[in-house]
Structures are given as C-alpha cells and as structure tokens.
Amino acid sequence: MALFITKRCINCDMCEPECPNQAIRMGDEIYEIDAYRCTECVGHYDQPTCQKVCPIDSTILADPAHAETNEQLWEKFVVMYHSDRL
Description:
Alpha-Beta Plaits, 14% strand, globular, metal ion binding, 24% helix, alpha+beta, two-stranded antiparallel ribbon, metal-binding
C-alpha cells in the first residue's frame, strides 16, 4: 500500500529528495505523498527510504485508503519506470 505523512511531520526536508519515484511534495502545511506514485520503494530499495530517513517515529505510515499488495506495488513500479523512460 502507498504511504502517507501524518501531522507529526516537522518539514525537515529529508524525505522528498530520497524518494526514487518523486512521490513526495510539499503540501499546504506538511509534506504529502502521491499515492499513485508511491511504491514503498519496491523496485528500488528493500524498505521505504522516506521512513528510513525521517527523524520522527510514526510520521510516515501505510495508507489504509490505498491498500496494495507487493505484486501491485511492483506492477506500479514497472509501469512508471517504463513511462518515465519514454
């Protein structure tokens, strides 16, 4: 499933440059994750880099509104990778 950033975000700017899918952008108040671009780093890394670099625990969580299996995340990665290369 895609990830989302909670209101615990302190806008430290650590997550945005680490996202290989360019799914993280500054929102009105805090950073936000585009669920349609987030693959939880499947296809890139073993774990989501945004969670790894975030200095505040429990800030970047699985988004229950966008439940996806690892296979679905992999397929999303493949489609994005292919379309980004065109």
